[in-house]
Design a protein that fits this description.
single chain; Aspartate Aminotransferase, domain 1; Aspartate Aminotransferase, domain 2; 5-stranded antiparallel sheet; 14 helices; binds pyridoxal-5'-phosphate
Length: 450
């Protein structure tokens, strides 16, 4: 492709495409990618980069899998579309397959995105309480720093103020508590004590808000986009205990943590919890097609079955459960099983842990947090004071990784000043050579920025 054509591509983009959550930057136009295979992407100028973020933490089996395209193609030719007011075999097969991982305890509701899956979770929770004789329960509690999506309800649950303030007022009834950010716990307090204290914030909130008004708690098994905040197991146990005590539904957002990302099929499986509702998206299809799921405990579903009381769930979306997307998701799960990608994720997490341990001595590395093939490195200006690293310092590291051919991310929360966490979430299908490259690039760049 000639330079004139590629420049034209960027210019055409500039004229017509409004980009997601990206400030306009005259000097630095968006990269136009043209090809991708495995963990590697090629841009319109022919540069190759390893995608250490799997797109938006989603291309879990890697790029360019022909058998996924074929599964979708075959289904499109056979039977293109049926609304989910009716049914079709890929939806049935996929629901059964998901239930294999979930002890057959859940009903599967299909939508299109992670935000959709969470909206459905909120609506089901509110309706469930109404039909279960507790109509006053309408509020949800989530954590500051967590991200749960961009639609109005999911954004209301999100605990990152900068994403929200220009779109307010949002949906009433969404409350927040502090996350279990163990790295910043008070001096002298153990991680366990601190996590118990943070879990108790849910109980305090429930009591202050009047316990009969609380419908649910929504949380990721570990906060991903808010800066990879991994709870101590005692935190999740305590949250489960509080949900049980107050009749509050536990909604677990597995949009990123699901499908092997943390070294188990679902992130909550690291902890002693039994979610009432689970939202899934991203890795469900490895982002080859849009599809999401809200998995709801069968005992909750019972209250929606009494059709004589008009108690069905009044929610429909046109594309959710699209047959090609369901067929593709099944093939995606088949690949994950065949290639042992969940175990591989756990193994790669251990590799990161061992081979990046030296970075703990780096003057600007405050904390390294890893669960499966998912990592956050909290960068600081000063290890003693834990003052968050400046945007300049973090931006330089990301740019240098990129110049060497590795995409990594930056996450955290801008309002609170913690936008200082380098993130890594590569395809679980990375080869050993890919992982060598990721590790050596991160080490080189950090050691060059002391
Ligand atoms: N929940 C979590 C934890 C997410 O990270 C995201 C997206 O990044 C969402 C929900 C929303 O998913 P989507 O972008 O598919 O609407």
């Amino acid at each position: 492709m000639s330079t004139i054509q590629t420049d034209t591509l960027v210019e055409r983009d500039r004229q017509n495409v409004w980009h997601h959550i990206s400030p306009y930057n005259e000097a630095s136009p968006p990269t136009v990618f043209t090809e991708a295979k495995g963990a590697w992407m090629t841009d319109h100028k022919g540069n190759k980069v390893l995608d250490g973020m799997s797109g938006l933490w989603c291309v879990n089996v890697g790029y360019g899998r022909e058998e996924l395209a074929k599964a979708a193609y075959d289904q499109m030719i056979k039977m293109t579309y049926t609304p989910m007011t009716q049914s079709h075999q890929p939806a049935i097969d996929l629901a059964e397959k998901l239930n294999e991982y979930l002890d057959d305890d859940y009903m599967i509701f299909y939508s299109n995105s992670g935000s959709d899956a969470n909206e459905v979770a909120f609506k089901i929770a509110r309706q469930y309480h109404q039909q279960n004789g507790e109509p006053s329960r309408f509020k949800f509690i989530s954590r500051y720093r967590a991200y749960h999506g961009s639609s109005m309800g999911a954004l209301s649950a999100t605990g990152q103020a900068l994403r929200k303030y220009k779109y307010e007022p949002l949906v009433p009834g969404f409350l927040h508590v502090a996350p279990p950010d163990s790295y910043r716990r008070p001096e002298g307090m153990s991680v366990e004590e601190f996590n118990i204290q943070k879990a108790q914030e849910f109980e305090e909130k429930i009591i202050w808000e009047q316990k009969e008004t609380i419908a649910g708690i929504i949380m990721e098994p570990l906060i991903t986009g808010g800066g990879v905040i991994i709870p101590h197991p005692v935190y999740m146990e305590k949250v489960q205990e509080i949900c049980n005590k107050y009749g509050v539904l536990l909604i677990i957002d597995e949009v990123i943590c699901g499908f092997g990302r943390t070294g188990k099929m679902f992130g909550h499986m690291h902890y002693k919890v039994k979610p009432d509702i689970i939202s899934m998206a991203k890795g469900l299809t490895s982002a080859y097609l849009p599809l999401s799921v809200t998995a709801v405990r069968k005992d909750i579903y019972e209250t929606f079955k009494k059709s004589e009381e008009n108690s069905h769930f009044r929610h429909v979306n046109t594309f959710g459960g699209n047959p090609a997307a369901c067929a593709l998701a099944l093939k995606n799960l088949e690949i994950m099983e065949r290639e042992n990608l969940v175990a591989r994720s756990a193994e790669l997490g251990k590799r990161l842990q061992n081979e990046l341990a030296d970075l703990n001595d780096h003057p600007h590395v405050g904390d390294i947090r890893i669960k499966g093939f998912l990592m956050g490195i909290e960068m600081v200006e000063d290890k003693e004071t834990k003052e968050p690293a400046t945007n300049e310092r973090v931006g330089k590291i990301i740019a240098e990784c990129r110049a060497k051919g590795l995409i990594i991310g930056k996450n955290g929360d801008t309002v609170a000043g913690y936008n200082n966490i380098l993130t890594l979430s590569p395809p679980l299908s990375c080869t050993d050579e890919d992982v060598d490259f990721i590790i050596s690039t991160i080490k080189d760049v950090l050691n060059h920025n002391t």
